[in-house]
Amino acid sequence: MKNIYFVQAGNLYGSNAYLPYAAGCVAANAFCNPKIRAHYHLGHFTFLRTPIEEVVNSYDNPFLVAFSCYLWNFEYHKTLAQAIKTRWPQCYILFGGHNVLNESSQQLNDYPYIDFLLHRAGEIPFEQLLLTLHTSGNLNEVPSLSFRNAQGQPQRTQDAPCTRCDFPSPYLNGFFDDLFAQYPHILFSMTFETNRGCPYACTYCDWGTARQKVHMMPMERVKAEIDWAAQHNIEYLFCADGNFGMFERDSAIVDYLAEKKQQTGYPTKFGACFAKNSNEMVFALNRKLCAHKLNNGATLSFQSLSPSALENIHRKNLGLEAYADLLAQYNQSGVPVYSELILGLPGETLQSFTHGIGQLLAAGLRGMIQVYPCEVLLNAAMATPDYQQEHGIKAVRVNKVQRYCKPATDDIPEYSSVVVQTSTMPIEDWVQAMVFSTLVEGLHCFGLLPLIAVYLHHQNNLPYERFYLDLMDFARENPNTFLGEQLAFFQARYAAFAQGAGENFVLHDPRFGEITFPLDAAVFLRGAYEIDRLFAELPTFLQRYALPNDLLTQLLSYQKALVCLPKPQAQQSVSFDYNFPAYFSAVFARQSSELEKRHTTLIPEQNPTLAWPDFAREYVWYGRLKGALTRKGDKVIYD
């Protein structure tokens, strides 16, 4: 029997790890074939960044090792593949996945220890490859395969169109069952699909170049995998569809998820990439998910609000008016909402980017704005030389560190190619945009200062972006303040990053546990840790807006009382001369309201007393998208 092993290395997220779904799909389809089972033995899956020597020593004379490659494991996979090839020179090394070039065999020249490349979906090509290797058949007949011909030259076969999705499930066929017994200390998360394909052509996405018809997974398989998740106490179920909520049957899938959780308690949470241009159907799905506490919040993604950038990336968005109406529905239904933007898209400027964030806040967004730096993916249209030349794109290769996971213990860095300059956004502007977005996310979205910005926007017509740009100016002019220190830190971090040096977009601070936090979360955690210092310095900044002293003092006191902290003071009332709770409730409900003089007493909700690492994990990591940092149980008494 010839031994086959699979590798899809991932990270530990606290005590959680993902089951290696992509590798499992390829293995399941092949080893459900009786001819393959007759001649090959399926070895184990490597799903964590286990020390290289330990992995190699766990193999028994491997015939072929197949790697499912992504940005976050490519360098580890290459290192492991080289070690395997050194130990067993006759072992075949196969690379597939998103970090394998779709249209080229070049990686065979770049990495001589790789024998095969599988391009695009791997189930059918891998099955045919094993059959062909057993019979010493013609590799040219295996679709979507790159190999070296008799002359040692790379050669790529034709793609065979795949119009089916009825492949065997690695879950239902028991391919991961042994992992639960072998790793009892790990809480496994699960990826599954209800369909494959994406009809859109976004240039930053490696699905966009395929632009293929969407094919449905059989509904029986979808429901059976949800049953499997419940039976195996899977807490987090991630749907890898490109556009969940695009089809009517998605509502039935959510109903089944809710029913299963009600019966068994599992899955605990459900995540998905929801359909572009989120509509009433997606709203209905998220309302159901929220009602059953299955999601952390709904995503209303924009990627950009710049018309030029949207045209350049071949994307259309909801109009802002429709977006504001949807936000109102979500807010009234108690469904947390967050939005996503990508910084570095061609056509975006510093002004359009900061204004876009201001527009989202003005439309009524109360949740997170997640800003992602634009990564150049190998198989995206943005990676082509013509596209990059047309838009003046400059990208730097930098260390890629995963967010919200334990710091890597190996010395194998992963890399990512990040856009830091376009013809409309020079590097200096990119750095300022990154600092701006980090401060807005950390100070506004996480809940340190939003009420001050909201009040000035509604009472003084001050644009949100102007408030935070003013705050940046104040921080530069006062480098010894808390905000001044944070600005200098992030300015230096992003400036170094733009030159391809320095650290990535995460911070490991032992005060907040053994977790890598994104920098926006780090702003909040640092601000909460030094909250007395921060709020003592704010009046000097806010003097520029000419607010009455008593109003300013009490507004700051009210905002500070609403910040979620790990060690709340003993329950005590806080009194104000203004009806702040009623005023802000009306503002967030998009109702006309005036701040009135009315004696108000606030009795803050008392959260459990936690150590800083526990607070950072439970509220900032797990709870950030579901509004855990927003106070909901405060008591208000009006005299």
Description of the structure:
The protein has 23 helices and 23 strands. By secondary structure, the chain is of the alpha/beta class. The chain is globular, with a radius of gyration of 26 Å.
Query: What percent of the residues sit in helical stretches (DSSP H or I)?
Result: 40-55%
How far apart lie the N and C ends?
Answer: 82 Å
Describe the sheet with the most strands.
7 strands, mixed
Overall pLDDT score:
92
Q: Structural class of the helices, strands and pairings?
A: alpha/beta
Regions with little confidence, pLDDT below 50 for 5+ residues: none
Rg for CA atoms: 26 Å
Brief digest:
The protein has 639 residues and is an alpha/beta fold.
Provide tags for this entry.
single chain; 639 residues; alpha/beta; seven-stranded mixed sheet; four-stranded parallel sheet; 19% strand
What is the topological layout?
Layout: E1 2-10, E2 16-18, H1 21-31, H2 34-39, E3 40-48, H3 52-58, E4 62-69, H4 74-87, E5 92-97, H5 106-110, E6 116-118, H6 123-135, E7 145-148, E8 154-156, H7 177-182, E9 187-192, E10 195-196, E11 215-216, H8 219-231, E12 236-244, H9 249-264, E13 269-274, H10 280-291, E14 298-299, H11 307-312, H12 320-333, E15 337-343, H13 350-362, E16 369-373, H14 385-391, E17 394-400, E18 414-421, H15 427-445, H16 450-460, H17 464-477, H18 482-498, E19 506-507, E20 517-518, H19 519-529, H20 531-542, H21 549-561, E21 574-578, H22 580-588, E22 597-603, H23 612-621, E23 635-638
Parallel strand pairs: 1-3, 1-4, 2-9, 4-5, 5-6, 9-12, 12-13, 14-15, 15-16
Antiparallel strand pairs: 6-7, 7-8, 10-11, 17-18, 19-20, 21-22, 22-23
